[in-house]
Structure to design on (532 residues):
């Protein structure tokens, strides 16, 4: 009996010990590049002859190994095309490469798969992470609390997040392929003064996302085929020359203050091309085409929407829900279902110098949208030139109403001002001579002697004999400012990263040559002066 009990205890003990050994083996061995330059374990497939350049001599894979921890700076790690493969579903999944509290290192030419972090950079400065393939990780490349790092030319594909920067500043993220990630292609959180340039962020849940991040420059990226192309929460950012196209949600979302969104291609997004939920931003020189809403402002004030080409959208430019004191100027708003729309208590806006043509409805002012100034616009060949509903005290003068099927539609409770008095006058109406064939010019004043009556509460007392001369919006006056802002940001970054100088300068010059051609072709948005 005693011997039987002893046998059971022995077998149970043996099983537990075997289980522990199996678990230890399942976790694998972590490779260290130690601060003294040595590599442990010594049999790991990483070689060095000078403790400066470390070269892989084979794959580093689970279950034999469980990733690499780098404790030495001022080195180069060359993966030599080999792979570091973990067990993402196992425990612990850890990091393929863990770079914590080091500086002045180059990491390149490695394939990293199936870790929680593919490459993890924490509190490390002046690192270059380039030409790596990072796939099937929870976080592909994660940079946390770090400065002056460069992440370039990597493939971050099929991860949960492709590339993440958290609480990190003065970094460069450029030329990466961050595609088909389950959440974010490229994400910035609580960072500033970063440059994000020439990346491909396609087919992610969200392409490029900024959360509480300011003073960043976002230039020349492809943010396509995602729920949102570029999502901006943070101030004083410049978003320029990007392609935000074919997203199944919004192209560009701005939910923060004092940003500049200019010169972007925002095309064929299912919902909104550019969606603003904040104030004091500049939206200028963008090509906004074939979206659900072209440019949509919700409860957003003190923004400038200037020189955009807004065509073939459901709504061209839509101001909604107390979007007040905005300037909408020099835009070409054509072939939309609805051109420029001020809706639901959107007051004290200026709509000036726009070309509003071939829309189903040109301008709409609806639902207690009062005290707006609509002046100096060409309103041409729309089904309805302007539509007013329950909105009053708007000043509508010095516009050209030309060949609209119905010049003005006024629905209930709308009393507005249609002229600027004598001698400035009111508006030009192409159907004036048909309605008032006996009218004559009043003493060579350029105004007819008979008022243009819309309804009992809306009359243009001083209709114009000839079309008013409306100057073209000079987008090129803004272009040098935007170029200087971007070049300054890139120049500061190159100074901090001198090894990027030749590549970045070449790419930047090529990029600007292309964009200047595009934007120069878009300068003449405003209506042209017509012969009297």
């Amino acid at each position: 009996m005693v011997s039987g009990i002893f046998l059971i205890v022995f077998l149970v003990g043996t099983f537990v010990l075997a289980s522990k050994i199996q678990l230890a083996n399942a976790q694998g061995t972590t490779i260290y590049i130690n601060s003294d330059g040595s590599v442990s374990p010594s049999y790991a497939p990483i070689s060095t002859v000078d403790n400066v350049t470390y070269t892989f001599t084979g794959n580093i894979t689970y279950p034999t190994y469980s990733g690499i921890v780098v404790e030495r700076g001022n080195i180069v790690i060359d993966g030599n095309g080999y792979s570091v493969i973990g067990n993402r579903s196992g425990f612990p999944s850890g990091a393929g490469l863990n770079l914590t509290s080091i500086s002045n290192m180059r990491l390149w030419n490695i394939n990293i798969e199936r870790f929680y972090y593919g490459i993890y950079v924490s509190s490390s400065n002046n690192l270059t992470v380039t030409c790596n393939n990072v796939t099937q990780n929870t976080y592909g490349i994660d940079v946390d609390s770090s400065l002056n790092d460069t992440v370039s030319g990597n493939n971050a594909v099929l991860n949960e997040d492709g590339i993440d920067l958290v609480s990190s500043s003065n970094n460069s993220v450029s030329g990466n392929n961050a595609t088909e990630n389950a959440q974010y292609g490229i994400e910035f959180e609580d960072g500033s003064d970063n440059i994000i340039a020439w990346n491909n962020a396609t087919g992610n849940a969200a392409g490029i996302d900024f959360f509480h991040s300011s003073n960043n420059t976002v230039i020349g990226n492809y943010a396509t085929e995602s729920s949102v192309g570029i999502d901006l929460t943070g101030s004083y950012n410049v978003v320029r020359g990007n392609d935000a196209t074919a997203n199944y949600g919004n192209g560009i979302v701005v939910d923060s203050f004092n940003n500049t969104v200019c010169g972007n291609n925002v095309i064929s997004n299912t919902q909104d091309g550019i969606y603003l939920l904040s104030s004091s931003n500049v939206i200028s020189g963008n090509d906004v085409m074939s979206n659900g809403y072209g440019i949509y402002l919700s409860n957003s004030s003190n923004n400038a929407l200037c020189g955009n080409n807004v065509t073939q959208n459901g709504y061209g430019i839509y101001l909604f829900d107390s979007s007040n004191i905005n300037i909408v100027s020099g835009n070409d708003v054509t072939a939309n279902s609805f051109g420029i729309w001020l809706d639901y208590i959107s007051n004290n806006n200026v709509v000036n110098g726009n070309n509003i043509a071939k829309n189903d409805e040109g301008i709409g002012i609806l639902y207690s949208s009062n005290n707006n100034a609509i002046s100096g616009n060409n309103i041409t060949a729309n089904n309805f030139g302007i539509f007013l509903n329950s909105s009053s005290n708007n000043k509508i003068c010095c516009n050209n109403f030309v060949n609209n099927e119905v010049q003005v539609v006024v629905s209930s409770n709308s009393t507005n001002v249609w002229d600027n008095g004598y001698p400035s006058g009111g508006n030009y109406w192409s159907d004036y001579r048909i309605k008032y064939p006996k009218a004559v010019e009043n003493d060579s004043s350029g105004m007819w002697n008979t008022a243009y009556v819309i309804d009992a509460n809306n009359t243009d007392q001083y209709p114009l004999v000839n079309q008013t001369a409306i100057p073209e919006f000079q987008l090129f006056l803004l272009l040098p400012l935007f170029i200087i802002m971007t070049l300054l940001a890139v120049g500061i970054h190159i100074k901090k990263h001198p090894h990027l100088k030749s590549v970045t300068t070449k790419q930047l010059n090529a990029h600007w040559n292309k964009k200047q051609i595009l934007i120069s072709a878009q300068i003449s948005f405003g209506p042209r002066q017509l012969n009297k």
